[in-house]
Amino acid sequence: MNIALLLSGGVDSSVALNLLKQEGKQGITAFYIKIWLEDELSHIGECPWETDLKYAREVCKQANVPLKLLSLQTEYRELVTQNALNELRAGRTPSPDILCNQYVKFGLFYDKIDSSFDKVASGHYAQIEENAGRYFLKRSPDPVKDQTYFLCNLTQKQLSRALFPVGHLTKEEVRKIAHELRLSTRDRKDSQGICFLGQIRYPDFVKFHLGKKRGDIIESESGEKLGEHNGYWFYTIGQRQGLGLGNGPWFVTRKNVEKNIIYISHKNNLSAHVSSTFSVEDVNWITEPQQTTNLKVKIRHGPKMSNCRIEFLKGTRIKVAMKESDPGIAPGQYAIFYDGEYCLGGGAIV
User: What CATH class does 3-123+165-180 carry?
Assistant: First the structure.
């Protein structure tokens, strides 16, 4: 079996590589994917790809595994970044990391490499089980690091060729293995934020592409103008940071895209703007749900899950009712469904 391993220069993929070696896997080649933003926007923030590549080379040298550099800059821009910008212009909340896994890491990447590779391995915190030719996506035992949220759009074909060597471990266990092996990445900090930004700040990325446009910040209850903002695309429903207002906390409750208005409410009035129901369209079902009333849902990456029930509507839309309300349900945001430890799939909120 020949394995193509996605190596980022971080501790997770470094340990994944070494675990495959310890299992006696042969035919391993590591790949570092270079993406478009890191050169094009280098003037607005530190782009650490050269440092990442340095670590990746050190890890591969220690493991005696070849490393190849693959540039997917143009494809990344077209498949992932342009979608994120289109969603922001429409006033929606993009989910680029989900599309990155779907279209690039377990899609285009596989098509670009030699056909002799049977599997694509990565440092994702998730598990795959196979039963009678069907593949199931299972949560990591580390609820904070679990990345099934970002893998919800993978198909059966993509899961059949994916390997997650650290998926059964916690982050603490991965760090411990890295120290035992004396990997150069053992103390590297985890990357934060969107996958294609590196150290570039998200607001700087948005400003570079969409610019600034002054608009009003209006209190939902009174209709009073409380301040101004630089563009509705900088904000998402439920956001409380970056409003620049005193006497808070204030939360974004809705947006008027045509008039470039941000509506906000004080925490004391937030209960009038929370919701427990929403609709999702075009869900990618990794596993068809066997029930509709005893499920859990995540509407953002992280350990928090909410009890929910779903109702299949006409076409490809489903209605979701959560047991508890949430102030940050935003169009475009992904809702991911779980039955116990298994990720059933997900889709975008409408």
Answer: alpha beta
The superfamily (CATH) of domain 273-349 is: Translation factors (2.40.30.10)
Type of residue at 130: E
The Cα–Cα gap between 123 and 14 comes to: 8
Pick the CATH number of 212-271 from 2.30.30.280, 3.30.70.580, 2.40.440.10, 3.50.4.10: 2.30.30.280
Name the active-site residue from 47, 60, 152, 195: 195
Q: Where in the chain is the domain with CATH 2.30.30.280?
A: 212-271
- Decide if 88 contacts 210 (C-beta within 8 A): yes
Q: How many residues does the chain have?
A: 350
What pTM was computed for the model? Answer: 0.92
User: Is 152 a residue of the active site?
Assistant: no
39-43: list long-range contacts, CB under 8 Å, 24+ apart: 39/73, 40/73, 41/200, 41/204, 41/205, 41/208
Among residues 47, 100, 152, 308, which one is catalytic?
A: 100
For the question of residue 195 being annotated catalytic, the response is yes
**Residue limits of CATH 2.40.30.10 in the chain:** 273-349
Q: Is the pLDDT reported for residue 36 higher than 70?
A: no
> For the chain, where do the domains classified as CATH 3.40.50.620 start and end?
3-123+165-180
| Cβ count within 10 A of residue 1 | 10
For residues 229 and 170, give the distance between their C-alpha atoms in angstroms, rounded to a whole number.
41
Name 67's Cβ contacts closer than 8 Å, sequence gap at least 6: 7, 29, 30, 31, 32, 56, 57, 60
Confidence bin at 314 (pLDDT 50/70/90):
confident
Q: What is the pLDDT of residue 148?
A: 98
Q: Sheet harboring 261-266: ordered strands across?
A: 225-229, 215-219, 261-266, 250-256
Q: What is the mean pLDDT of the chain?
A: 92
Query: What is the CA angle 253-255-256, rounded to 5?
Result: 145
